[in-house]
Write a structure and sequence with these properties.
Largest sheet of chain C: none
Largest sheet of chain B: 6 strands, mixed
CATH topology of chain C: MetI-like fold
Number of strands of chain C: 0
Order of helices and strands of chain B: EEEHEEHEHHHHHEHEHEEHHH
CATH class of chain C: Mainly Alpha
CATH topology of the domain at 1-33 and 43-84 and 221-327 in chain B: Rossmann fold
Structural class of chain B: alpha/beta
Shape of chain B: globular
Distance between the termini of chain B: 29 Å
Radius of gyration of chain B: 20 Å
Oligomer: heterotrimer
Strand content of chain C: under 5%
CATH superfamily of the domain at 1-33 and 43-84 and 221-327 in chain B: P-loop containing nucleotide triphosphate hydrolases
Shape of chain C: globular
CATH architecture of chain C: Orthogonal Bundle
CATH superfamily of chain C: MetI-like
Order of helices and strands of chain C: HHHHHHHHHHHHH
Number of domains of chain C: 1
């Protein structure tokens, strides 16, 4: 069943200087299109990941989804309720209770003056619900101790704080959790713990995640579907397997090729060219064309629509067109080399 | 190693606090040779940055070097103070930090910053210095260096700014570069460019590089050898291929397993239980023992062997055998 | 994580450490215990506050009870028995035979009360307006901050005198003396709210973009709830520093106003009033009538200021 449907979502920010400066410096108003005509759907109890570099608009989409920002155009519907336009307060409230968010910075997302217990139960207490023993139960569910409920956030490490954030998100028994780079501030070994925990909780509570990340390799373990964003536009959407084995958009190919790999020591491949353009003055046509190795005339003039190619949706005029092969070879379907030694496997069994 | 550029011996950094003396760096020894990139890797709190700061004399009090020696090109530098240390930085040691904005003066044109740095360390005329500055920008791949020399830092994009910082670090032709998380603030595509640039320049000039990062991917791409730190101690040191594919220390092994990889497929990530201990609550014996899957009684009591430089060994009583392979 | 989860039969309700226990273990308390300046000034301030509160119990005489005054005791020198009556006054007496020590205790009472009440008033006003300006933004912010800017261009003492003058003009004569203290409090408070508002607004702008505030908005918390329950506790440390330093300034402002004759009435003399009275006798050799109230004022203001300085350093993590 469809839980979220995002249609032609656009968000424009006014980034003009104050009017007095504009008059004196004779500047026009400046607008930044952070998200431009993005459409996708999230099925219930699946994980949808949005991946993109800085300025791709991934966090803006997340904020519009949870209602922290209003869309400029288009709509976000959650169970067919449009949060920004729905007039019936009861309906909005019901939907709101079903959405939670986990933020990137575990040091800023917990109020430093509150006890962990009060932080965790706030989503329920704010609606006047019964909260006795709830924080303790949730803390144990996310792998902390019930004793931690009376402590303050500064007594915890980054990974533990992120667990507290997860406990808070779970308190109101939501259906959808938007996770905005939940592990990018964490160390690698802790990141693995948090990702595994999130994936366990998803199965246990039947959650749906929108997972936002700048790192393709992080999301592949958890996602059912991945959307790749570039400069506010959705350029490719596919299942992780499809995306990694057969990336169709040149940008996705570039991202995969540029991602550091642990098994290619001192490789001397030419790095990708160029940087992300200024989102205030995006290029005409396909936003990626100035960096694209296979760009043609049409790419400079016409913005490509998303079209279905095999199991994916791709916004590229040239993807899969005969005779215009991608210049960057996609990483061959790499077989993961045998990783676990016998001792590790044993140890894992005993810890899990 | 014969005549290493940087040689650290038994380096210990201490911070006296009211809870006792903390040792963010504890008995660390390693060398970096000419043209070699040594990756120093560890999670936050492992002491990797503190070790870098100790080398460039930028420890903020009350942290201090309590023990050990640091040599650059055979000269002992850990006791240098004030002016002498300042001259050494820049001339012998260049620095590249995580955030390019903080290492550039926002009020000065980049050309002036480069020329000033060159003039401060090399005995040449201003015109010559300017020529050198342009060449430096050219080398780090900034298009139109002759015109761009008059731009201010804010007129560059993030990746270009980091290139300027690298030019600034290299312009006095130091023999050692300390790069602390040089790509962490950058996007994936730009990160690949910066790593490639750093590698190319250092191999060309024979500059030694201490590359401090938490990112195993960056290490795999750039480093020749890798030093793995945990809770202030060096736990493993060796050629990058050996350490990453056949780690001997259980911590390195766990770290490698928990790194998400494009090639690893959709199975569950391997995880190390727990977190790095706080410096004021270090466990007895080997600091890793509460998280170690192979822990034995001996590990709980005895801090374990310390790494001498040179071998691809691990600071562990029971190092993993070489056939414990990692992807 | 590092801690083992509780066994299932263990009681879930564990007693949380109280805020007091936490405070005593904190770095803040530790730096306090290791700063002689902070300790000494705290002791001085606490002693003075206690002396002011319990003035009627401590003071050997009631200087405002005409029945207990003996004009013969006038101009007694400190620590010397009076030539006529043989009474001994520690700090001497003034022209009307009032014990200077007692008048200082009562004056301290007025000075501290006016200072503290004025700062409290300024604090409440400044925090409210600062929170509003920072959190709501837009026109609200523009108006509040412009008013603040305009007020900053006048010296605070001038603003206080203006307010004091206007208030005095509109209160009926028979209430003037009664109202004087309250007018003084409002006048000093109104001249002092700006810095609270500015600091709170700045801190609010930082806090409101933090993710914990977004998390609270997300679950539908109302703006007043977010401002009071989430943001306010996190902007209080700089407020505490300013309040302490403001207290010293307010006490001095009150003394200045009283010295100029527009402050506390002679029936309720503050330290400033005492100094004004005393300075008339300075050149005729009765130095103690001026010196002791002035020294008290100095000690009080200095201690409060040193405490404020130390607070600022202790609460600023960057300086440590």
């Amino acid at each position: 069943m469809r839980l979220v449907s995002v249609e032609h979502l656009t968000r424009i920010f006014d980034v003009s200087k104050p009017w007095l400066n504009r008059v004196i410096e004779r500047r026009k108003k400046a607008f930044l299109t952070a998200v431009s005509d993005v459409s996708f759907e999230i099925e219930e109890k699946t994980v949808y990941s949005l991946v993109g570099e800085s300025g791709s608009g991934k966090s803006t989409i997340g904020k519009m989804l949870v209602g922290l920002l209003d869309p400029s155009e288009g709509s976000v519907k959650i169970r067919d309720v449009d949060l920004a336009r729905e007039k019936d307060a009861a309906k909005v409230d019901a939907v709101r209770a079903d959405i939670q968010m986990i933020f990137q910075d575990p040091f800023a997302s917990l109020n430093p003056r509150w006890r962990v217990r009060d932080i965790i139960v706030e989503p329920v207490a704010a609606r006047g619900g019964e909260t006795k023993g709830m924080a303790e139960r949730l803390l144990e569910q996310v792998g902390l101790s019930a004793r931690d409920a009376g402590k303050f956030p500064h007594e915890f490490s980054g990974g533990q704080r992120q667990r507290i954030c997860i406990a808070r998100a779970l308190a109101s028994e939501p259906k959808l959790i938007v996770c905005d780079e939940p592990t990018s501030a964490l160390d690698v070994s802790v990141q693995a713990q948090v990702l595994n925990l999130m994936s366990d909780l998803k199965d246990e509570f039947g959650l749906t995640y929108l997972f936002i990340s700048h790192d393709l390799t992080v999301v592949q373990h958890i996602s059912d579907k991945v959307g790749v964003l570039y400069l506010g536009r959705l350029v490719e959407e596919a299942s992780p397997t499809e995306l990694f084995e057969d990336p169709k958009h040149p940008y996705t190919q570039m991202l995969l090729a540029a991602a550091p790999k642990l098994d290619e020591f001192g490789r001397e491949v030419p790095p990708p060219k160029g940087e992300i353009p200024d989102p205030i003055n995006p290029p005409d046509g396909c936003a990626y064309h100035p960096r694209c190795p296979i760009a043609m005339d049409i790419c400079r003039k016409m913005r490509p629509e998303l079209r279905k190619i095999r199991g994916a949706r791709v916004a590229c005029h040239l993807a899969d067109v005969k005779g215009v092969g991608p210049a960057i070879t996609p990483p061959e379907a790499q077989k993961p080399p045998e990783f676990r030694s016998k001792r590790t496997a044993d140890a894992e069994e005993s810890t899990s | 190693m014969t005549n290493p550029i940087l040689s650290i011996r038994d380096l210990t950094v201490e911070i006296p606090t009211r809870h006792g003396i903390l040792r963010p760096v504890d008995g660390v020894s390693y060398d970096i040779g000419r043209g070699e990139i040594l990756g120093v890797v560890g999670e936050s709190g492992a002491g990797k940055s503190m070790a870098g700061n100790a080398v460039i004399g930028l420890l903020s009090p009350p942290a201090r070097i309590a023990q050990g020696e640091i040599h650059v090109n055979g000269t002992r530098i850990d006791q240098l103070k004030g002016e002498a240390m300042r001259r050494l930085r820049g001339k012998e040691i260049g620095m590249v930090f995580q955030d390019p904005l903080t290492s550039l003066n926002p009020l000065l044109r980049i050309g002036d910053q480069l020329t000033e740095t060159i003039l401060a360390h090399l005995d040449i005329s201003r015109a010559e210095a300017e020529q050198r500055a342009i060449r430096a920008l050219d080398e780090v791949g900034i298009p139109g260096a002759r015109e761009r020399i008059n731009s201010y830092p804010h007129e560059f994009s993030g990746g270009m700014r980091q290139r300027v910082v690298i030019a600034l670090a290299l312009c006095a032709e130091p023999s050692l570069i300390i790069a602390e998380e040089p790509t962490t603030a950058l996007d994936v595509s730009v990160q690949a460019q910066i790593i490639a640039l750093l590698k190319q320049l250092c191999h060309q000039r024979g500059t030694a590089v201490m590359l401090i990062t938490h990112d195993m991917g960056v290490i795999a791409e750039a480093a020749d050898r890798v030093a793995v730190m945990y809770a202030g101690k060096l736990v493993e040191l060796g050629p990058v291929r050996d350490v990453l594919t056949t780690p001997r220390h259980p911590y390195t092994h766990g770290l490698m397993g928990s790194t998400p990889l494009a090639s690893r497929g959709k199975d569950r990530l391997h995880q190390i239980p727990g977190a790095m201990p706080r410096l004021d609550a270090l466990p007895s014996g080997c600091a890793f023992h509460p998280r170690c899957p192979y822990v034995q009684d001996k590990c709980k009591a005895d801090p374990g062997p310390t790494l001498a430089d040179g071998g691809g060994e691990a600071a562990c009583f029971f190092p993993l055998s070489q056939d414990a392979k990692v992807a | 994580m590092t801690e083992m989860p509780l066994p299932p039969d263990a009681p879930i309700a564990v007693k949380d450490p109280s805020r007091l226990t936490l405070a005593l273990q904190s770095d803040f308390y530790y730096t306090f215990r290791h700063s002689p300046v902070a300790m000494v000034s705290t002791v001085v301030v606490v002693l003075m506050v206690l002396a002011a509160i319990f003035a009627p119990l401590i003071a050997p005489y009631n200087p405002f009870d005409p029945a207990s005054l003996n004009l013969m005791n006038g101009f007694s020198r400190p620590m010397e028995p009076n030539a006529f009556t043989g009474d001994l006054f520690w700090l001497g007496t003034d022209d009307q035979g009032r014990d200077v020590f007692s008048t200082i205790l009562y004056g301290l009472r007025i000075s501290l009360f006016v200072g503290a009440a004025a700062v409290l008033f300024a604090m409440v006003l400044g925090i409210t307006l600062g929170l509003l300006a920072g959190y709501v933004g837009g026109w609200t912010e523009t108006i509040i901050m412009r008013v603040a800017d305009v007020q900053l261009t006048f010296p605070a003492i001038l603003v206080a005198m203006l307010i004091f003058g206007v208030a005095k003009g509109i209160t009926p004569v028979e209430y003037r003396d009664q109202m004087a203290i309250w007018v003084l409090i409002i006048a000093i408070g109104l001249s002092d709210w700006v810095q609270f508002a500015r600091v709170v607004r700045g801190a609010t702008l930082v806090e409101k973009n933090k993710e914990y505030v977004q998390a609270a908005r997300l679950i539908g918390r109302t703006s007043p709830a977010i401002m009071l329950r989430h943001i306010l506790p996190n902007v209080l440390s700089p407020v505490l520093v300013i309040a302490t330093i403001s207290l010293a300034l307010a006490i001095i402002a009150e003394a200045t106003l009283s010295f100029l004759g527009v402050g506390a009435p002679p029936t309720q003399p503050s330290l400033g009033t005492l100094i004004r009275i005393g300075q008339g006798f300075l050149f005729s050799g009765e130095w103690w009538i001026l010196l002791f109230p002035a020294a008290t004022l100095l000690t009080l203001a200095l201690s409060v200021n040193l405490l404020g300085d130390w607070l600022r350093d202790a609460l600023n993590p960057r300086l440590r």
